[in-house]
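Long-time lurker, first post.

We've been arguing in lab meeting about whether thiamine diphosphate would sit comfortably in this protein at all. Half the group thinks yes, half thinks no, and nobody has a model to point at. So I'm putting the question to the forum: if I give you the sequence and the SMILES, can you give me back a predicted structure of the complex? Inputs are below. Any interpretation is welcome too.
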Amino acid sequence: MRHVLSVIVENRPGVLTRVAGLFSRRGFNIDSIAVGEIEDKDLSRMTILVEGDEKVIEQVIKQLNKLIDVVKISNLTNESTVNRELVLIKVKAEPSMRAELQQLVETFRAKIVDVSLDSIIVEVTGDEEKIKAFELLLKHFGIQELVRTGKIAMMRGVKFIKMNGEGGKSG
Amino acid sequence: MKIKGAMMVVEALKRENVDVVFGYPGGAVLPLYDALYDADITHIMPRHEQGGIHAADGYSRATGKAGVCIATSGPGATNLVTGIANAYMDSVPIVALTGQVPANLIGTDAFQEADITGITLPITKHNYLVKETRDIPQILKEAFYVATTGRPGPVLVDIPRDVLAQEADFKYPEKVDLRSYKPTYTGHGGQINRAVRVIKEAKRPVICAGGGVVSSGAQEELIKLAEIGQIPVTNTLMGLGSFPGGHPLFLGMLGMHGTVYANYAVTEADLIIAIGMRFDDRVTGRVDSFAPHAKIIHIDIDPAEIGKNVEVDVPIVGDVRRVLEQMLKKLKKGETEEWVEQIGRWKKEYPLTYSFSQEELKPQHIIQEICKITDGEAIITTDVGQHQMWTAQYFKFKRSRSLISSGGLGTMGYGFPAAIGAQVGCPQEKVFCIAGDGSIQMNSQEIATAVCNKLPIKVAIINNQFLGMVRQWQELFFQRRYSSTCLEGSPDFVKLAEAYGAAGIRVTKPQEVVPALEKAMEINDRPVFIDFQVVPEENVFPMVPPASPINKILGGGTK
Ligand SMILES: Cc1ncc(C[n+]2csc(CCOP(=O)(O)OP(=O)(O)O)c2C)c(N)n1
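Top reply:
Settle the argument with this. Predicted structure of the protein with thiamine diphosphate, as tokens:
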């Protein structure tokens, strides 16, 4: 099963290596990882998608907790969350195909962000399902290049990740 | 007042009550060595950085204080790697200081540059690359704090040469507060109550005590727990010494080379109380047949150890000593006579034995004589191999910190430098290193260190002319095809010792053992090497073959 972990870390050089290194060393598989600063500029938040059963995830969380630079870990897998990923896709676009492409882009509320003679770049944001569907459709036109940010997630409603609250580090 | 980075390091060491460091100089640490030149800190120079860090490790295990070692950049730093991994596996608090090339040259493949923080990432509890001289006090304070608290471990601090040479204001922090590091020391009240209840209900309980008992100083609490609850105790290799070897409730070591009765007891138990141990594969054997009838209470300071290898019924995260104190307040006298009697019958039926001989020298006999002549009071370090297991089996340890051995990493060459550290830390104690003829050659250059510092370490080389433990596996599992395990070309160890100015004694017959030991005990101004030329093909039994259930035992009865 795939899990979504939100890992708040000290914003220090090498912290990404520490986290990524731990995954490879202990034989855990990262599906995707997205990193960026948060509201407190001393901290970064990593959203990590990791494959494994409950036992594996428990070990992942405990081992991550042992890293001195890791401040807090939340398992968002079973939370109600907003999930987003941003993808840029360069598609072949002969002039004759553009109208059809345009329509597709609108349906998916994507955006055309660059146009050249025979290709365009499309930007799309959304959850996994939407992006998968969009990618599948664009394949018919011919995808030349694709780049994604990795998924980010945030809990819905009043809940938020408190820095000193439950789920804080111990041990 | 502004002082140089190197002076800051010396000042920080003083504030951390460090009075001995083990270090080896070089270009990148020249400023630090200049500051050490007239500092009030004893500096011990090994003959190889690996010797230095193993000595710091032995010092730490013998004294309970953090061990400190220094190496220069590049090859100096990489020579520490085995020692760091060794300390990491056995949770030994070490602060390793390494020099680095000047900050502006980092990343350019400069002369003697190695990315030591990168290299040691997976084998340190934490590590630091210091970027600014003014950061030195804060980082060293943190380094000592992280190394010695929670589950202890090695911390490396890499300092570029120019950072050591430049000046900045020195203010040493009073305390450390890391929002991302808050070890749990006190056990959860509800879990303590559950544990006490489960102990009360148990008919066949066994305590498995590991290195955590030693590092938290919980020997007395462990004895009380065992005596009040009438619960037999077995030790992991790392735990040996935490429970008196002569105690009627003691079962000796468990696991691959454990006693038959310890392994039977664990297999038949209805409750395992695992204290400061981590269910290593050498302890559990095939993990799905480990303690099949037992509930498990697991007490450990590291939450990640709980549930890692075996499923646990009552997890308790906390400092072993504090948790045991909490439990002892509620524990009632246990009634386990039948169980203790049953184990007593196993002890009689399957004792630890070997066939003593009047003609040939047996390694087990030597260990027993060393135990006798020191009254079990010496600090014993070992290398890795058969001699290590015989020591674990036949030496009756009386107190914590009296066995110093490389458990998790199994590092040959550890024993002798560790003995140097132990003797430096405990000058009043008798220190014995029980070594293999293979292992001793991995760090024999340190004889010079021991001679220079007049350390009266007794080194008992169990010389079987083989890489014995590997040979044993080849004998048992590879049809005696002794591929590269015969140690041809070893030096004459007596002459080797004498060449360095140490004493050397040779023993070839059982009758010579005691006189040789007596003679060694009288030498107090230099190391003594005793070359015990033992039978070449003695095996360590009992033995649980790898990945077998621990009650399927070679050379000791199979249930
Ligand atoms: C650095 C290192 N290299 C290799 C090994 C593998 N190994 C384990 S025991 C052993 C033999 C040790 O021989 P010796 O020191 O003579 O001790 P004995 O087993 O004969 O008592 C070897 C090679 C090891 N543990 N450490």
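For your lab meeting: The longest helix of chain B spans residues 49-63. Chain B has a mean pLDDT of 97. Whichever side wins, do check it experimentally.
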